[in-house]
Amino acid sequence: MYASREDIGYDFGEDSKVGSKPVKPNPNIDGGWAWTIVLSSFLVHILIMGSQMALGILNMEWLEEFNQSRGLTAWVSSLSMGITLIVGPFIGLFISMCGCRTTAIIGGILNALGWILSAYASNVHYLFLTFGVTAGIGSGMVYLPAVVMVGQYFQKRRALAQGLSTTGTGFGAFLMTALLKYLCTEFGWRNAMFIQGAVSLNLCVCGALMRPLSPKDLNEKCMVRSDSEENRAKAPSNSTETIKSNGVLTEEPEKKEEAANEEVHGSVQHIEIGGKSGSGRSMYGLRILKTVSQLTVTVRKGFALWYSSYFGAASLFTNRVFVAFIIWALFAYSSFVIPFIHLPEIVKQYNLSRQDNVFPLTSIIAIVHIFGKVILGIISDLPCISTWNVFLMANFTLVTCILTLPLMQTYVGLAVVCALIGFSSGYFSLMPVVTEDLVGTKHLANAYGIIICANGISALFGPPFAGWIYDITQKYDFSFYIAGLLYMVGIIFLLIQPCIQKKQPREKSTEEAQV
């Protein structure tokens, strides 16, 4: 087990230089504007994730309107949910180039456009493009910045902040379900989608609140985090050896790039000063040239950071623990989504519809899920508790519940298991924290983009796979068993890789001693 990057011996280098002078922290880190960022992220989760969990209302309307099969119609919702997460790595490129604020505002406009265009759908295939793809990409462009910004603004209470912001998913599931039910009843599903598109424009407001931290503040935060992690570990770090073997983003290329950028700006400014005696038209042209050069430099720098994270010497994939984390994500999310999709049918098979109508099992999961995120976040922020250990324990509880659920045939038994599923799945709020501990703040956007992409693949294919198993066996039992076993494989990868990572430096030192 480990509690920080130093424990696993992996670092990307941005935290390697710690100044001897005391660092005066930015008052907005862990306080001030940071809580506005939490509010912005909370609203994003309500408008995006909450809306997606309420798509069952629109799915029934589409079935009646277009008279298509349930499988084909369900792909509209699956595409929207899957693409929101799958586009994560590419959204990381936008964040590297334009920043979180600009990316989120563009995504809010695109998401609203997808909802509005879907109101004019003539068939299901039209919805694939407008709602599944357009609104899905827009959702992804807002969702990832909302998570990344919370990670940037918090140091001491990261887990709690992420937990509070992601509780918007549970609140949104209730609010958006009630809103869409009311709108569909009063105005019809087409006008409901049009109105929902107008409501989604509030995502642009949420994006505008994502005020970026200066590079100086980010560096100070990294330095403070390095100090706190060293004090907590109280052991010599093996990061130097790992850096040499795995490769990092060194500062020399960045300095060379900054020098080149200064040359470009300096030459443009020199031309501008020399051309003051010229006409106003030439001055206007020089200003345009300066703006274009600055934009080009920004794009080049953002693309270089994105490219190096995925394919360069400092590729995220050289971190074995992070690769294991990706494998885990490929199996984990479907285990949470499958109960939401198939529980109503299980309740119907067990003749428990009357009890479920009074208090639906999916509502139990959603309610307890809210408390799980907050409580697990508070526990993880305790100085004596490892976030990684809390994360693993929650995963073990969830996979046990998934494997146990088919054995429960009474409403009380199912309700207890669903409550445990809701609470243990609160570890979703810890995923950005664990990712940041693995790769650092600088690479959080690209790394978390990969993780949610893996989650998107899991969400896209998990429920249809469970339905296919049911078509073969005429039982949902095997769907949960197979999903649980695959989930367990992902957890085993998380357990094995840190042990391998720790053993490598020891083996190396033993060999050197023998020589």
UniProtKB/TrEMBL annotation:
The record gives the membrane topology as: Multi-pass membrane protein
Residues spanning the membrane: 33-55, 75-95, 102-120, 126-148, 160-180, 192-210, 321-341, 361-379, 386-405, 411-434, 446-466, 478-496
Where is this protein primarily located?
A: membrane
Per its record, what are the GO molecular function terms? monocarboxylic acid transmembrane transporter activity
Pfam families to which the protein is assigned, alphabetical: MFS_1 (PF07690)
Q: Cite the PROSITE patterns for this sequence.
A: MFS
Task: Spell out the subcellular localization from the entry.
Answer: Membrane
Q: What is this protein called?
A: MOT14 protein
The gene for this chain is: Slc16a14
